[in-house]
Structures are given as C-alpha cells and as structure tokens.
Amino acid sequence: MKICQLFLVSMLVLTFFTAVSDGSQNHPFVNEEIMEVESIKPGMRGYGKTVFSGTKIKRFNVEILGVLKNYDAKSDMILVQLTGPVVEKTGIISGMSGSPVYINGKIIGALSYAWAFAKDPVAGVTPIREMLNILNRDPQLVKNGVNHKNSSAIIKASSKNNTYNNTLKPIRTPLMVSGFDKNVFSIMGDKLDSWGMTPFQSGVMGSGISGNIKIEETDLLVPGAAVAAQLVQGDLNAAAIGTVTYRDGNNILAFGHPFMQMGDIDFAMSEAYVHTTLASRSLSAKMASPIRTVGKICQDRKAGIAGKIGEYAKMIPCSAEITGETPILYNFMIVHNDLLTANLCQMAFLSALLSTEKQLGEVCMELAIKIYIEGRDEPVKLENVYYDPGSGALPIAQITQPINELLNNRFKRVQIEKIDFKARLIDEPKIAFVESLHVDKNDITPGTTVNVKAKLRAFDKNRVIEKEIDIQLPDDILPGSKIMITACSSIYSRLLNLERSPEKFKPANFKQLLNLIENRELNNEIFIRVLLPTYGISYKGLQFPSLPPSILSIMTKPNYSGTEMLFNEKIYRIKTDWVVNGNQSIFITSEKG
C-alpha cells in the first residue's frame, strides 16, 4: 500500500514539473525570464509563438537582424526575419500582433510592426521591457501583485498610420464582424482605416462549442494564444484579434503596439478561435472568432494593451428595431467609450436598416432613439423623419449624434446605461418643396395680425399642400420698418439659427445641452420665421430680446465674451406629413397705425 502511495506521489510531482517546464502549458503563467535589449545581437536565432489554426500554439523561427536604438521617442525596435512553412508563404499576418519572441528561452518582446507590401517576412519587435511598463500604469494591476521595476516611462505618441510604404507600421488589426451588412464597411471604410483596423466577415462560436472542434484549455490566453478585444457582442459582433505576449497571473499583455492608444479603456477580453490563416499579397490575415469573454482590457498604450482575467467590462445594452417589409429586432452590447460608442452605434443601426428586404433608396424613414443615462429618470429622446435616396448613412449619423455629444460634453461625465433605436421604413418618398409664400394684406400696422400662407408641392408634382398661420406683430414696430418673413425647411432654419444667433446653440450647462438635443428641428416641419427690426443679445446660451438701448450698447462691446447680437425673430413650427425641403422669403413694410 505504501509503495502504491509513493508511486502515486512521484507521478504527481513528475506531472507538475513536466507541465511547468513548457511555458505554453504553465497555467496561469507567471514571470517568464526576460532578455534585455542590451543583450540582443545580430545573428541570434530563436522562435516566436502564435496560433495559425484552432487554438493550438505553434512556433515559427526568427533571426535577429539588429536593434534600432531610439527608433521612436524613448523606444527601441528589434528587427527580426521570420522563417517557417506558414510565414514564408503568407508573410507577416494581420492578427500576429503580440506574438511573443524568444531567444535562448527568454522572451525579448512582441512581434508588432511590419512594412507594407514587403516581399520578405521582416518585422519589428517591441521590447518586452517597454510592454511591462503598461502594467505599472494601472493601479489595479500593480496592487494585484504585478510591479515590474527598472523601466522607463512611455511617452504617448500618435498611432495614426503613416502613408509611406518605407516606414514600419503597426501590423494591421483584423476586425472580425458578424451580423453586420457587408455594405456598412464600404460606407464606414475610412473610419475603420483611421483606427488601423481591417474588417473581415466571420462568425461567433459562443460558449457552446460543439462538433469536431477541439480546444485545449491549456492553450487559452497564455503567451502565443489568440485574444479578442470585443467591441460589440450579441446579435451583432465586432472583435479585434491579436496575440497574447505575456501573462503574469491574471494579468495579460498583448498586441505590442497600440490598439488606438486611448489610455485607460474598458473593453471585453475574449479567447479566440482561428479558423484559418488567409494568405494574401495585400494583407494576410487570421480568420478568427471570439469564443468566450474571460476578462477585460483596461489599458491601451503605445507599447501594447493590458488586460485582466476575471474582471469584466461595463458595456452598453442596445436594441435596434426595424419595421418594414420584414420586421427585425437586434439586441447587442457596445463598449462604453468616448470615441467608439457613437461610431459603433452608427455602424450597427445602419446595418440593421440595410438588412431589410428592400435596400434603401427612394424611401422615407422615421427614426427614434432613446439614450438612458445614469442619474436621469427619463431617457434622452430624439425623433425625426428623413428622406434619403442613398445608403441611409446620413440619417443614421444625425440620429446618433447625441450619443457623441453626451459622451464628449464639457460639463460632466456621462454614463450611458442603455440605448434603444427604432426605425420605420416608408416606401413612398413623401417629400415636398416650399414653392411660394404670401400674406393676406398689404397694409401692415403695429399690433396687427397677419395671415401667412405657405404652399408646398409634393415630390410627384401633382399634389399641393398649403399651411397657414396667423401672426400678431408687436406694437412697438416703427413705421417704415421692413419685416422679413421666411418659410423654410428644418435644414435651412438651422443654418439661419447658426448665422443669426450662434450663442443660442452653445450650451452653458448640461441642462441646456439636453434641451438642445431634445428640441431639435424636425424634418417634417415647415418653419415660418418672422425677422423683426429690433435687436437684443444672446449671452451664454440665454436670450435677452428686449434690452434698453443703454444696456444693449454696454453688453455688445467687444470686452464681453459669450455675447452675440440676437435678432428679434419669432419662429413658428408647423408639422406636416412630408419631409420639407427648400425656402421662400418675402418682405413687408410697416405703415403708420
């Protein structure tokens, strides 16, 4: 019995030491031995680790070509040449960013930079010491046991891609998307390109992985494993794919270059499964899918990204409901981020529109958005109707603009709790143009009531719509004064607002901002604007239309900031069943009473 127990203990000890002897099998991974840049010499040979298929980590060979000292501000770059059956065929692969590179079993850094259209697989490696600095930036990472000393500070620099082909650039990040309409990416291509991402249509594997796909637990989120930064999750998905460089307990370093260099972030971090590696002359890439969320990415810095397993990002629940030929409802979550949230919502809602049976063009659409924010009982609401003969991108950009205004306002930090979007498509192009404008009398006296009638002609030119309103003129209009009356669309009215009283649209506090968002001009309204010959001022968003001349002369002096001349203008809004376009104006003259 004792011999059996001794044999069992011996086998357990042997199994343990066998596991820890191979870095890829040590889980969780703690404190790999590091080779400093000063010890790296040309001609040294080693290997890198990444995933080319599935979750199995494979090696590729590297040879040191040299070290570029002070390549960037306070940063070095290690040049390496890759060899091996895969990389010699594909070149540097989008999605390899962060692949750890080793010399004599010691990690030297992360594969992270390359030349565009290079014939040979030559790449730049970000030194591991510079990446370890990221962990020192996050108090949570430091207090949880990671404190790598003797490292210099990282100087933040722009991550915008250089357009010259002879410059080392960050390896482009593949953005794996599913559920999105393919046309979205041609429309949003410039935006994605400026973020350093290239979209690929993929799928989501989810937590219930089945079939013949075998995933080794020991291959997940250790150095060399595929990792996903998830920006959108649910019925729509978008995940940026890279490679884990270094793991210390539950702390992860990856990419080796900035994602977008946004500093402190809060993105979902997932394991990833690589379906295949696609070889291409322009851009080879890993075709991958996120598997399951296991933590969050909390730092996005010049030398890479850092995340923590077991802590989860706060994402925004969103819904997109489309009523048309085929009703569609999407439910998904989006990262809470000042830069990305509004743009990702725009992509998601546009995709929902384009996924209807009838592609857009020659349709009207009623759009509505509700933005629930922390500390406010009622959501911030915006509704409007649009006519757009193109892709629908412009209406979606306009209806989602308040998201950006809330997240980037100058008054307070806003936490968005939920976003609901609804769209109703109308096949008939219900658009009308302002054709003419007239008043019912020629003798205009102070205090009199004038009937103003605007005539609109429908899109098909066979139907005429008339809208009228009675306007009472002020009693203090001087005889001989000219009064300008304009009938116009919401777009033209907005332009007149910005020209005549711009300070009115510069909120002085958060309450004013909410008021401006929720009371924007509607496209199915016709605006009757009566410009009167008396003036006032607008001061920090507040209007003072009838000031005494003495006060007016003082407040309009150039030594008062935030003051603009305010035209004394009465604006009337009349709702119609049509999207209004165009404008017409007439002048009337005040006679003696």
Overview of the molecule:
The structure is a single chain. This protein is α+β, with helices and mostly antiparallel strands and 593 residues long. It folds into 3 domains: 26-207 and 216-313, Beta Barrel (Thrombin, subunit H), CATH 2.40.10.10; 317-426, no CATH class; 431-589, no CATH class. It has a 6-stranded antiparallel barrel with strand order 1-2-3-7-6-5. Strand 17 and strand 18 form a beta hairpin. The longest helix has 20 residues, at 2-21. The N and C termini lie far apart (121 Å). The relative contact order is 0.09. Mean pLDDT is 82; it is low at 6-28, 142-164 and 207-212.
What is this structure's SSE topology?
Layout: H1 2-21, E1 45-51, E2 57-72, E3 75-83, H2 87-90, E4 93-94, E5 99-103, E6 106-114, E7 122-127, H3 128-137, H4 139-143, E8 169-170, E9 173-178, H5 183-187, H6 189-194, E10 197-201, E11 226-234, E12 237-248, E13 251-254, E14 263-278, E15 284-301, E16 304-309, E17 315-323, E18 328-335, H7 340-354, E19 363-373, E20 380-388, H8 393-407, E21 416-426, E22 431-439, E23 449-458, E24 464-472, E25 482-488, H9 490-500, H10 510-518, E26 525-539, E27 542-544, H11 549-555, E28 563-575, E29 579-581, E30 583-589
Helix pairs in contact: 7-8
Task: Write a short abstract of this structure.
By secondary structure, the protein is an alpha+beta fold. It has 11 helices and 30 strands.
Which key features would you list for this structure?
43% strand, Thrombin, subunit H, 11 helices, single chain, alpha+beta, 6-stranded antiparallel barrel
